[in-house]
Amino acid sequence: MLVLCSGDPKMYEKFWRKMGDKTTITIPGWKSISYFSDTTNICWFLEPEFAKEVVRLHNVVGNAVTEGRYIVVGTGSSQLILAALYALSSHGAAEPIDVVSAAPYYSSYPLMTDFQKSGLYKWGGDAKSFDKDGPYIELVTSPNNPEGHPTGPVVNRSNGLLIHDLAYYWPHYTPISSPSDHDITLFTLSKSTGHAGLRIGWALVKDQEVAKRMTKFIELNTIGVSKDSQLRAAKVLKVVSDSTEEENTQEGESFFKYSYEVMEQRWKQLRAAVEANGLFTFANFPTGFCTFFNKKTQHLPAFVWMKCEKDIEDCQSLLLQHKIRSRGGKHFGVSQRYVRVSLLDTDENFNLFIDRLSSMQL
User: pTM to 2 decimals?
Assistant: First the structure.
């Protein structure tokens, strides 16, 4: 069984093996004893070295404004989403604030929002059909997961609060058009470098009070974020930034160039397989100018969002019959004729997926 229903980023292991000891760190037994990392920082559990490398990487890539922003570190971007919902909610309101996102939306948004049945916020559904008066929070995912298209806010009302989830706004997935400049912007290590197991994400927050409330949520939730994970993450981000600078001097291989070429080849194989069986369709993405690569590049989403054609009503079940576990459209707020499949697995599993897709028949 090929398990391609999640975005487990095992594709990147080959690159990091080639890096050898460049990302190896030694953490002595006496280190990371204290809860605190920097008591002068609003996010008091943020390791200074990690914060430095976050700023450096965004400046190297050009995908986010960091000046005048507070960095809040979280246990993956999932914790930061909940922290942001907590921070933006009105704690004295009679009713919980609605949380919306345009369908097809990230499948975990409704589950995360309603998991604890909070009195502060609740899932309000598809932003495209949201018509209630009053304040709301809109989750904007760009490039979109699962579709892969660049997106923006949909509701666009004066009493709306926005959280921008930019997990995939990196040059190996999409052309970088300009630095993102939003009130709350979320990133995660799992999709930028592939280190999902470190469980590290970060938020760039414009408003000081929002940053304080997000920090308070994480303090109450987990009393901070692992220092060891932050130190490892800092080393990984440093190597990524270094690899870009070394590649420009012909001294090494750029992580982003390597990853872009792998994704480009995978999408080429995928298009050929889909054309061969005629059972599926998916969007064609235009090229765009990427300021990082300084040339036109392709949109190469981490997932393929496929629609079953002919009389197939349940795309997820069809793939399951061919031993491919995917995630059906109902999880994303749309029809089961749609399905999301991860393209981030190992070369071996990806090639098996292509073989099964190419030979698939009704």
Answer: 0.96
